[in-house]
Amino acid sequence: MSIGKLRIIPALVILAAGSSVGATYAQETIKGDPEAAKTKVSMCIGCHGIPGYRASFPEVYRVPKIAGQNAAYIEAALRQYASGARTHPTMDAISKALSEQDIADLAAYYANLK
Amino acid sequence: MKRFSLGLVFVAFTTFATGAGAADLAAGKAVFEKFNCASCHGADARTSIDPSYPVLAGQHADYLAHALRSYKRGQAGMPAMANVRKNAVMGAFAVQLSDQEIRDVAAWLASLPGPLATRK
């Protein structure tokens, strides 16, 4: 089991408990830092930084515009890819490599990139 | 003869514009209203009631259509490799939409002004 998976387990336990207190606690203790994200966006920009870039599997469509998107939505989407609630070949792999801090930093970065 | 030709052009144009596959913005707006999407995403489709819900206004139409189809597949219990989204609320709405309604509402949302952009 990779370190990445081990770090996800506590978050899953909190979610499984259905505790809103736990979720609030996690959000309050991890604060997104847009500056810190600048060293983490290399896996994002190859698709999301290219105007008109298209995903090709399993459907062909332009990848979403994420600059200016709500930070909390970006965080939710990344967690859903990591948990399997959303599936997409590329995003599955990338989201599972991200820590909670990485997710918060990237969400803060893109939400403020207007 | 001239009037006849103009009539033919008109018929050809309207047939093309309303043919299967073409998106109808007015119909898309009607879909947004029929399913009361504004109750979560905001009347402008960019001021959602909760920040964990996405800005839709100005997003790529083909991506929005893809997202709706993914919710539909998730609701239908398709396997993960089919590219699914499992979400009780969006899944329940998406399964009620025809392919044409998905194209229409996606095109209308994409036509709205919004803060979204493609930047590095």
Descriptive key words:
heterodimer, A: 114 residues, mainly alpha, Cytochrome Bc1 Complex, Chain D, domain 2, B: 120 residues, 55% helix
Beta-strand residue percentage of chain B:
under 5%
Instruction: Please give the radius of gyration of chain A in angstroms.
Output: 14 Å
Mean pLDDT of chain B comes to 88
CATH superfamily of chain B: Cytochrome c-like domain
- Globular, elongated, flat, extended or rod-shaped: what is the shape of chain B? globular
Write the layout of secondary structure elements.
The complex is a heterodimer of chains A (114) and B (120).
Chain A: H1 3-17, H2 20-29, H3 34-37, H4 42-48, E1 54-55, E2 61-62, H5 71-83, H6 89-96, H7 100-111
Antiparallel strand pairs in A: 1-2
Chain B: H1 2-18, H2 25-34, H3 38-41, H4 61-75, H5 88-94, H6 99-111
Helix pairs in contact in B: 2-6, 4-5, 4-6
Walkthrough of the structure:
The complex is a heterodimer of chains A (114) and B (120). With 114 residues, chain A is mainly alpha-helical. Chain A has a single domain (31-111), classed as Cytochrome Bc1 Complex, Chain D, domain 2 (Orthogonal Bundle), CATH 1.10.760. Chain A is 61% helix and 4% strand. In chain A, strands 1-2 form a two-stranded antiparallel ribbon. In chain A, strand 1 (54-55) and strand 2 (61-62) form a beta hairpin. The longest helix of chain A is centred in the first third of the chain and has 15 residues, at 3-17. With 120 residues, chain B is mainly α. Chain B has one domain: Orthogonal Bundle (Cytochrome Bc1 Complex, Chain D, domain 2). Chain A binds chain B through residues 41, 45, 48-53, 58-73, 75-77, 80, 84-89, 113-114, and chain B through 48, 50-55, 58-60, 62-63, 65-66, 69-70, 80-87, 114-120.
Brief sketch in words of this structure:
Chain A has 114 residues and is mainly alpha-helical. Chain A has one domain: Orthogonal Bundle (Cytochrome Bc1 Complex, Chain D, domain 2).
